[in-house]
Design brief:
Blueprint (H helix, E strand, L loop, with lengths): L3 E10 L2 E11 L4 E5 L6 H9 L6 E6 L2 E2 L10 E4 L11 H11 L4 H15 L14 H13 L5 E5 L7 H18 L2 E6 L2 H7 L2 E6 L2 E6 L1 H6 L4 H6 L6 E10 L2 E6 L2 E4 L13 E7 L5 E2 L7 E6 L2 E4 L3 E8 L2 E8 L9 E6 L5 E4 L7
């Protein structure tokens, strides 16, 4: 039995469809990330699971219980919002205890829960401070602690790190992962940051327009995106795309775009079979070799247009098949702007998409 299950869930605001017949199962102890651009419906779905929004159709189950019309307090969830929403006049200890006192939890139990949460989140020295005396990262830890003291099976996170700077986001991302490993609770986490999704999730649900485009492990979503939207959204920089056609030449299938030709005879076509016609050829920047001397199935000479040093690696921009093309190389092998280099890759690392539907071939 799943920890959280969403069945045919829809939500409309007037005539506007926000969520469309969504189905989702989250296993016990799983870390699920809802990922997508702004306006895709990920926070709306989380709020429907939390009971903060009434659904137009469908059902929500938590630990096998139909909670579709239950109040948020009765769903057995703990929620962490984007804003800290701490009471400024209360100490950290007071903020952690506030909800428990309202629920009339015994004082001894409140002390035990606060001590446990403070130990897990390493905020024991902060318990007597007020929010104004805390850093952003410390405030977010307290906000997580406020959910943690509820002692529930399911935690919901709505972009909890988006208000923090890059360094703090990185640090707290690790802390949230450690927290999940310690507690083994079910966690559903909303973000538009693909790095957070790839590093935290057991599985990712990529959303667009109120529909789940792909629901799978980070590795599968990264290496075998089901459509062009997922392929473009996951990865930084995004996947390179070359527009062209699939053709049969000398009895073998090829992808052709002007002077660019790549053999795809060994490409796994996901059971859909090879068919000629317009297609998009996608290859990730890190799957492209530059002046490596390796025997690539495909190679070409290109001129370097832009070089972007990133520290440990470098992004190199050029053109292939008349279209913009990016490679990621280690900094020690970075070519100079204007240089002519040989690039190569294995088409088996590529993705092929139908140009009209965007679906993976």
């Amino acid at each position: 039995m799943p920890s959280v299950e969403v069945k045919e869930l829809s939500l409309n605001f007037g005539s506007v469809e926000v969520l469309r017949s969504l189905n989702l199962e989250v296993d016990h102890g799983e870390f699920l990330v809802l990922l997508g651009p702004s306006g895709c419906g990920k926070s709306t779905l989380l709020n429907c699971i939390a009971g903060l929004l009434d659904v137009s159709d469908g059902q929500v189950f938590i630990n096998g219980k139909n909670v579709t019309w239950e109040q948020p307090k009765d769903r057995g969830i703990g929620m962490v919002f984007q804003s800290y929403a701490l009471y400024p006049q209360m100490t950290v200890e007071g903020n952690l205890a506030f909800g428990l006192k309202n629920a009339r939890v015994p004082k001894d139990e409140i002390r035990k829960r606060i001590a446990r949460a403070a130990e897990i989140l390493q905020i024991e020295p902060l318990l007597k401070r007020k929010p104004a005396a805390l850093s952003g990262g410390q405030r977010q830890r307290v906000a997580i602690g406020r959910a943690l003291v509820r002692d529930v099976d399911v935690f919901l996170f709505d972009e909890p790190l988006s208000n923090l700077d890059a360094k703090l986001r990185s640090e707290l991302r690790i802390e949230i992962k450690r927290l999940h490993q310690k507690l083994a609770n079910t966690m559903i986490y909303v973000t538009h940051d693909q790095i957070e999704a790839l590093t935290l999730a057991d599985r990712i649900a990529v959303m667009k327009g109120g529909i789940i485009q792909q629901f799978d492990s980070p590795k599968t979503i990264y290496n075998r995106p089901v459509n062009r939207f997922v392929a473009e959204f996951i990865g930084s920089p995004g996947m390179n795309f070359i527009e062209g056609t699939l053709e049969t030449r000398d009895g073998a299938p090829w992808f052709v775009s002007g002077d660019f030709r790549a053999p795809v005879s060994n490409y796994p076509f996901d059971g859909k079979g090879f068919r000629e016609g317009p297609a998009s050829f996608g290859i990730r920047p890190e799957h492209v070799g530059v002046n490596t001397g390796e025997g690539w199935p495909f190679s070409a000479q290109v001129q370097v247009e832009v070089v972007e040093p990133m520290g440990s690696d470098t992004l190199v921009w050029t053109r292939l098949g008349g279209q913009s093309f990016t490679m990621r190389v280690i900094s020690e092998r970075s070519p100079e702007t204007g240089a002519t280099v040989t690039i190569g890759f294995d088409p088996l690392n590529a993705s092929l998409f139908d140009r009209e539907t965007g679906e993976r071939l």
